[in-house]
Structure formats: C-alpha cells, structure tokens
Design goal:
Length: about 220
C-alpha cells in the first residue's frame, strides 16, 4: 500500500521571486511497520524500515509510489527495535546514509541477536562506523542542510532510544509513542505524559505513527 500526501507552500529564499515548494510524504506499508518517505527541497529521508527479510517487498512498495533508491539520501530509525531497523544495513549498502542520534548509539545492536536466531534472514549487523551521528540539539541545522525544516527530539517513554521527528509545517513522526488519545489510560506514566507535552509544545497538525493510522489534530 502507498499513501501519498502532498502539501504545497510558498517559501522565500532571499530571491526576487517566491519559490513554490512541494512537501511530499509517502507512507509505505509493506509489512507491519509504517515507513515514511519525506522530501522537501533536497534529498529524501526515510523514517523507519520493517523487519529483516522484507527487502523485496520494500522494493515493490517504493516502485508503486514512484520512489527510486537514488531518491533516498538518509534513513532515520525512530528506535532500534527489530521491526524498525531490519533493512537499515541493506539500505546502507546502496549508499543510503544512516542518520543516528547520539542517544540511540548504545542501542544500535539491540536487535542483532533476535535476527541471528533465524538463519534464513542472513542478517548483517549495522556498521556504526559508517553512520552519521548527530545530537538532537544539532538536528535542526542538519535537516535544514537536507532541505527539510524541523528537528528531532528524544521521546523515550517507549524505549530509551526513541525519538520523534517534528517538522515546522506541523507534521510529526513519533514511531511507537503510545497514541495521544490513549494518554488518559496511562495517567501514572510520567515519561509518556512528558513526551506528549514536548510534542504538543510544537503545535502539531498531524501525527504519524508506526503502527496506527495518522491522527489529525487541527
């Protein structure tokens, strides 16, 4: 399944004329985890992948959405559980750079043993030396250089390495963060409440989840 949402906006780049920018989100569903392709004015960013062994299905999904491998410059995992990073090593072999947040570094091999239990997967561990490591603090500048306006923040209530990508246009990608509509059911979960307070401080318009349908807030 491929769902493509396009948002058109006018932006000024200190030039005589405004430049029309088409902000594109393409949601890829080729397993159990929603994967998102994002592009604004530069290279594309892939948010999450699915389980190891789903590469053929991934190729079919991007073809259906008119995405080429060469369109993807970076891959970002919202966290390093096996159903989110199974294709990262395969994509890195194809010159797609792994964008790793420094708080995620200790968890990059979390899923290795899980994948090794199934010999059919022939899983290759992520080479951390070939990743690009940045801090959340520096993420806005890094994304800006990619042509994407926004930042990456730590939202560790699901796992210590969990992050969320929050864009200036109100679009948010929160991975496995427990959906906001269930927040009252977790009244004693201080970390979850804190994460949502942070996300909501950016006045989001739409929340994209890894395992649930998107939520429009405005």
């Amino acid at each position: 399944m491929c769902v493509c949402d396009k948002i058109t906006a006018l932006k000024k780049f200190n030039k005589p004329k405004d430049i029309e920018v088409v902000f594109v989100i393409k949601k890829l569903k080729y397993g159990n985890t929603n994967t998102f392709f994002i592009r604004e004015t530069g290279g594309g960013l892939l948010v999450d992948t699915d389980f190891a062994g789903t590469l053929p299905a991934f190729y079919k999904a991007i073809k259906r959405c008119d995405i080429k491998i060469g369109d993807i410059s970076y891959v970002l995992a919202t966290h390093y559980h096996p159903d989110h990073i199974g294709l990262v090593s395969e994509l890195m072999k194809q010159r797609i750079k792994l964008l790793l947040i420094d708080t995620q570094k200790p968890y990059i091999h979390f899923a290795d043993e899980i994948f090794r239990r199934d010999k059919r997967l022939d899983y290759e561990s992520i080479n951390i030396d070939k990743s690009i490591i940045i801090s959340s603090k520096n993420s806005r500048k890094f994304l800006e250089n990619m042509g994407i306006e926004g930042e990456i923040v730590s939202t560790p209530s699901h796992s210590e390495d969990s992050i969320s990508l929050i864009l200036n246009n109100g679009t948010c990608f929160v991975g496995d963060l427990e959906p906001i509509e269930y927040l009252e059911a977790y009244i004693h979960n201080v970390k979850l409440k804190k994460d949502w307070q942070l996300v909501m401080s950016y006045n989001p318009k739409i929340i994209y989840y890894a395992h649930a349908n998107e939520k429009t807030l405005q």
